[in-house]
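Morning F.,

Quick status update on the modeling queue. The single chain you submitted on Monday has been processed. Sequence for confirmation:
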Amino acid sequence: MSVLAGWQRGGWLSERLVWVALGVVLVGGAHLLPALCRSSPLAVRGVGALLWCGCTAGASFGHATFFLLSQSHAGDVRVAALPVATAAAHRGLTEVMADRASVTTLLAQSNARRCVGDCPVLRGRRAGLASRLDALDAEAAEIRRYQSIEDRVEKRRDAARDDPVTARLAALCGITEAKLDLLAGLAFAAVLEGMACLLWWIALSPGPAIKEGAPAVVTDAPVPESGMSAALPVVTEPKTEVTKLARDIQNGFLKPTVSDIRRHLRCSQAKAALLRRQLGQSMP
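Structure tokens below.
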């Protein structure tokens, strides 16, 4: 999703590649930083938390961009699948009404004239203007019918472009569809990133520690076929919490203090003090 969103954001090829690389880095940081900084000192974990918040926000924004663009593309596909309904070519309603106003003025002027006698010319002019006025009225009614058809087609295209679930949920919640699309995209991205972080945390977590007092593992070495004496059994010491603490202290993950041991193992104060005494006895 981050790759597709970054590719659609950029214009030039170089810009698209930079956006794609940035999205991959943000997603990798959002997924791996909590697991990688788990055993680090407190200062490093604080910086890692800030970076994780920034990476999560950037990755969520990229995911929301993908969701919104995909909905827009799906709407364009639905609109393209609709049958094309076009009205016949016609003049604008404003132009027709202007002609009707002119004819109405001429007819009023003809009716205002007085004529003594039969006056066939004046009667013919009045009849012609009245017929032209009726034709303009019919043309205006036809144009209004065409406009209503075009309005219905446009409304149908808009309804097909919008996601049906989003449209109904927006009407139910009383907010605009654009705002609901943005909130839904951010919510989906937050859930997705949270699930990814949790899975990486579980995948990179250390295995269960062997408790103290566990029996040693004894393996018998193979006996040579010659007349040599049998080899002694090889004894492998179990990996206890004390040995793990000694290894982590040597690697610089924590200091040999009760508070650091307690934070590192997430154990009680009494257990941390006991491990510190055992560590002092085992280490020279």
